[in-house]
Amino acid sequence: MLTSIVFAFGHVASGDLALVAYDVVFIIINSVMYGFIYHKTGNLWLSTAAHFIANLAVILGLLQI
Question: Do 1 and 32 touch, CB atoms closer than 8 A?
Fold first, then answer.
């Protein structure tokens, strides 16, 4: 969990405080999820694929706006 918090704060961007806080919270949640996937499977590639799919979903969602 501590690693996820440090990871999230490494991704902090400038901008509206509420939006930045929202982003940090979801980065923490995603980071914990990727760690859980790795812990359960022992497969870093599966965790990396989950991260890629999540990023792709966000990009595709932003393109729909």
Answer: yes
Read off the pLDDT of residues 4-36 as tens digits, 9 standing for 90 and up. 888 888 888 888 889 889 989 998 999 999 999
Q: How many CB atoms are located within 10 Å of the residue 31 CB?
A: 19
48-63 per-position pLDDT tens digit: 999 999 999 989 998 9
Q: How far is CA 44 from the centre of its chain?
A: 15
Q: Kind and range of the H or E element at 55?
A: helix 44-63
Q: Could you give the CA distance from residue 33 to residue 24 in angstroms, rounded to a whole number?
A: 14
Beta strands in the chain (DSSP E): none
Rounded to whole angstroms, how far apart are CA atoms 51 and 53?
5
CA gyration radius for the chain? Answer: 13
